[in-house]
Structure formats: structure tokens, C-alpha cells
Write a structure and sequence with these properties.
Elements (H helix, E strand, L loop, with lengths): L2 E5 L4 H12 L3 E5 L15 H7 L4 E4 L7 H15 L3 E7 L8 H14 L4 E7 L3 H11 L4 E5 L3 E2 L4 H13 L4 E2 L9 E2 H12 L4 E5 L4 H7 L15 H9 L4 E2 L5 E2 L1
Parallel strand pairs: 1-2, 1-3, 3-4, 4-5, 5-8, 6-10
Antiparallel strand pairs: 7-9, 11-12
Helix pairs in contact: 1-6, 3-4, 7-9
Length: about 260
């Protein structure tokens, strides 16, 4: 039986990947910092990581953090080479080579480590998940006025569709850099924010604010979009319905009204 290791296997994406691989009959190992028997901090590596990859045919690398991704990838690659892993599948982000955001630069560096690893490899870039967009809008809407970066569009994708694609890639031969996976619609950030407010029952004034800096210019120019690869099917509104239902308006007392 083929054994597949999923790093970040308890996260939003990794959990779905692991579930789908098990349903397809694979032996799955879930690696995360706190989940036994493969509780490993990839940034530290060591013997626990070596044990986790021993006997593994394919690794699906979903783990990510704001800091330390490059060291984590280097440790994983070292262990994978030592264990004779056949295939390393890595999920990245559309625009990491076009938007000069620090986190994106780190993700691009990880891609290069994967490409130069000496392992059979596959890299998939996807647009931002619906879940992340909701989390961002939840944070922004804590204020009475919802401030948005002016002129920015987004192309969110349903995380389950990304999981399905990663499972398909993990089951195949190493394919190098494959075509990007984007959500079905390129939308203004304002239209997405208003859809979120309606679904979550929040009333907020929406104000578009011009920002500055190279990263903002990269987002404003659409460097994080892939309209030619709008192959996802789940829309943001469909995600919101699944998350919030029909949406309600909150009164000053905090009680929802239909």
C-alpha cells in the first residue's frame, strides 16, 4: 500500500487532503506540531522528522507559517532525500513571483528549494481560499467602518477544490510546476466585502482607502490573480451560505433579526 505523508495535516487544507487520501485507500500519516504519533516541528527537524518520513512514498507539503517556512522546507527535503521519498507535492500561492510581499517572497524561496531538491516534485499554485478571505473580513469588520484597500481585486477559491487537485497530483507521477488553480470569479474586494457583510448580518460603512508600497501595487495590478485559470466552481456566495446560512441583521442589542 502506498504511504503518503501530509504535512500540516490538521490545518484547513491539510485535513481535507488527508481525509480524501484515506478515502481513496492510501496509508496516510499526518504530520503537525502537536498531533501524535508524528508530532514534529518542521523548523527544528531532527530524529522525529526522520522517523515520520521513513517508508513514505509521497509527501504532500501543506504546512506553512508566517516565519520559518524556508527552514522547514529545507529540513523536510533533507529528511525526504535520506528516506528515498519518490514524490514531493507542494502547495504554493498564485503571484509569489509577482507581488513583493515578504510572505510571498518566502513562499517563492520554498518553491525553489523544492525544484532544486533532487526529488521528484510537483508544485501547484492556488489563489487565496474563501476561508482566508472570511477571516480577513472578520478582522476588518470589527470597527464601525470597514476600510478596504482601494482598487484591489481577488479571486478566491474553495479549499475543497484545492484539496481534490492535490490528491490527484499526489496519486500521479512528479509533474513539475503544474497549471495554477484559481477561483471562478475575479471580483473587486469591495463586492466580496459587501457579500460578507450581507451574509454575516453586519452593517458597516465601507470605505476604499488608497495605500502605498510595492506590495500594494502588486496586488492592485492583479499579480495575485489568474483569470485564465478560473477553473474553480465554488463561488464566494456559496461559501458564505454554507458558513452563515441566509444572513441576518444584528440589532443594537446583539439579537439577530431576519
Amino acid at each position: 500500500m502506498t504511504t503518503i505523508l501530509v504535512t500540516g495535516g490538521t490545518g484547513t487544507l491539510g485535513r481535507l487532503v488527508a481525509e480524501r487520501l484515506r478515502a481513496d485507500g492510501y496509508e496516510v500519516r499526518v504530520l503537525s506540531r502537536h498531533t501524535q504519533p508524528y508530532a514534529v516541528d518542521l523548523r527544528e527537524g531532527g530524529g522525529a522528522l526522520d522517523a515520520a518520513v521513513t517508508g513514505v512514498d509521497t509527501i504532500v507539503h501543506c504546512a506553512s507559517a508566517q516565519k520559518g517556512d524556508e527552514q522547514a522546507a529545507a529540513n523536510l527535503i533533507r529528511a525526504a532525500r535520506g528516506a528515498g521519498v519518490r514524490h514531493l507535492v507542494h502547495i504554493s500561492i498564485v503571484g509569489v513571483d509577482r507581488v513583493p510581499l515578504r510572505y510571498y517572497k518566502s513562499k517563492l524561496a520554498v518553491e525553489r528549494l523544492v525544484e532544486e531538491s533532487g526529488l521528484g516534485w510537483t508544485v501547484l499554485r492556488a489563489t487565496q481560499f474563501h476561508d482566508l478571505l472570511v477571516m480577513v473580513l472578520q478582522g476588518l469588520s470589527k470597527l464601525p467602518v470597514l476600510f478596504l484597500p482601494a482598487g484591489v481585486r481577488d479571486q478566491p477559491v474553495e479549499v475543497a477544490e484545492v484539496a481534490d487537485r492535490l490528491v490527484e497530483l499526489a496519486a500521479g507521477a512528479p509533474a513539475g510546476r503544474v497549471e495554477d488553480l484559481g477561483g471562478p470569479e475575479v471580483r473587486t474586494f469591495e463586492s466580496l466585502a459587501r457579500a460578507y457583510l450581507k451574509a454575516s448580518g453586519r452593517r458597516r460603512a465601507v470605505v476604499n482607502v488608497p495605500l502605498w508600497g510595492a506590495a500594494y501595487r502588486g496586488f492592485r495590478s492583479g499579480g495575485h490573480l489568474t483569470p485564465q485559470r478560473a477553473v474553480g466552481t465554488g463561488t464566494f456566495e456559496e461559501h458564505l451560505v454554507g458558513r452563515f446560512g441566509g444572513g441576518q441583521v444584528r440589532t443594537g442589542s446583539g439579537r439577530p433579526q431576519a
